[in-house]
Every structure is written in C-alpha cells, then in structure tokens.
Amino acid sequence: MTSEKPLYFFLEEPLRESAAAGEHNFLNLVSEVVTNSGFSVQFEGLPATRTGNYSLGHMAQPPDDKGLVFRRVYHYPFWQIDAVAQRWQGDVARARFIPEQAPSDAPRFYRFWQKRLFGDAPQSTHRDGFIFVPLQGQLTRKRVFQTCTPLKMIEHCLEYGGGRRVIATLHPSEAYNPSDLAALNALADEHRSLTVETGKMEQNLQRCDFVVTQNSGVAFNGFFFGKPALLFSQIDFHHIAIQADLDALGDSFARVAAHAPAYDKYIWWFWQDQSINAGRDDAKAKIAARLRRFGWPIK
User: Fold this and answer.
1) Is residue 134 helix, strand or coil?
2) Given this model, what pLDDT does residue 39 score?
C-alpha cells in the first residue's frame, strides 16, 4: 500500500543518481529516519516541481512551507537541515556561541580536523603583512546580503588595511563577467600593493595576517589556520568573525588585526553541536530532531 506521506528529494545530477542508488551516506540516514516514520521516498531533479508534499532539496529554496533544505556544512561529513536556502538566515546563524560551554575535548577535535583537512599546513603559519581577500562572483554588484560590492571591499582593504599588501584571489570554479575582471585588473594597475591571483587558498591562509571577504567559505577554513576574518556580508559562521562597519572601517580593520577568538571551541560548537555529523552514531537522532523542529511527523 502506498504511504500517505511521500517525501520528495529534489537533487541535481549526479547527486540524484547517487542518492537513488543508496550511495550517499547522509541521504541514506535521512531516508532511514523518514521511512521509519511512515514516509516513502522519491528522488527527483531540480528545480522542485511538486508542491503540497514534504520535500527536502539540496541548497535550493523549498517550493512551499512543507519543504526543507539541506546542505553540507563546508566539509564532509557535516550537514545541516533548515527551512531556508540562505545560510545567513538559518538556525545556526541566529544561535549564540558561548565558548565557556565547549567541552574539554574541543582542542583535540580541532587538531584532528586541522590535520584531516590540511595536513601539517596549519602548524606552519605566520603573518607576512598582507590581507587575503578570497573573491566569489559578481564583483561590481552589491547584493542584498552584502555590505558593499566585492570591488569596493578591496578598495576598503587598500585604504584601511594599515599599509598591508592585498592579495585578492579569483575562485577557480567561477565564470566571471569580462567587465568585472576588467574593473578588477584596472584597480590592480592603479595600486601596486594589490595582487590578483587564482586559487592558492592554503598558501595564502598560512601567510596572511587576516582574511577579508563577503562570505566565502575560505574564511571558515581560515579558522583552522588561526586566521581571523572580517566580513562584508551575512553568513552562518559570523560568530567569531568581525563584521565590517562602513561607518568605522578603521576600527573594523584594527579589531580584526588583533582578533584572537577561541577557534577550537568554535569549530567544535559549529560542527558537533550545531550540525549533523553523519559519521557519528547519533546522526539519525539529530536528523530526526531537526525534522521535528520544523513540524514534520517524525517518531
């Protein structure tokens, strides 16, 4: 008999094919949780087309109020389930980080993931007197969640960075508008202290004084290198970063240069407490708790 509670997974290829074949660990766990509560699961492509049904989409805004969104929390095997696709509007973005509540094994957890993700690189860091600016797309457009355009952000670094060099890196997977690249190159021609590169994330995280970005995940990776971040946009990992204040940018840059938050406690909180670690025994319980949090009929 067909279940009265169908659940549609809306996934891009090849994720849909992988999930349908039972080859995706996290979606296997979600499927176990929901089928144990009387759901049947179906895997469909994006964009989401079926409304009025329970759905779970990958990084895509849900089609209606019965849908949720899931995404990787920057690295495997950490995942999040939320009601909105925008990271900066999710539950963790609104949660309060209290360093004193982190457990005693937070440093061990942090060191493990430093090594797992970046090998020995985080143990060999220094400050070579430059600001690392990892760029995303649309360099001359200010989007609603941003404080200013990415190009203007670079100009702020040049003006308020205390004489530091600025290394701005293009995302290797981004297709940039030629006019945006022309504007960026013109700025580099005007300022000898600005260098434009592509990639080189680990090398720059090892050597920079701090990271300035809109909301690039590179700033999150910088936490594993002990490098503070100055943000010109909203994002979910803002808790230990400095938020740029356009009315007091000199103060913002001075603050981030001296900033030394509890990186180990934050990484533990952000991943072990606030996310779903699909490699842990409690993963299904945390998945069920997230689905219940949004009113789903889960046992």
Assistant:
1) strand
2) 96
